[in-house]
Amino acid sequence: MVxxxxxxxxxxxxxxxxxxxxxxxxxxxxxxxxxxxxxxxSAFKYLAEKFxxxxxxxIKVGAFVGPQIRKLxxxxxxxxxxxxxxxxxxxxxxxxxxxxxxxxxxxxRN
Length: 110
Prior knowledge:
Layout: H1 22-36, H2 42-50, H3 56-61, H4 66-74, H5 76-81, H6 84-100
């Protein structure tokens, strides 16, 4: 019918009961962020200095784990090295991760 939602089948689960695998989302976003970073830039070099036990190949593909990402969230020096689009995407990544409740920080819900 025109003006009404055309739903053929009702959903099997209620929408609020579905949980997304938040850690997997966070790791994927981190991987995409690092791949898009400027390789000769100071922020990328800082990653190698910050995590000396992580191989260069793993840093290039963005293979970080949750505790390492949380360290970067708390690191003001890394945040200050980012500029332009890198800064905007890092801020958006932190915002999304915080809203998912996976940043290691307390979140407030309205």
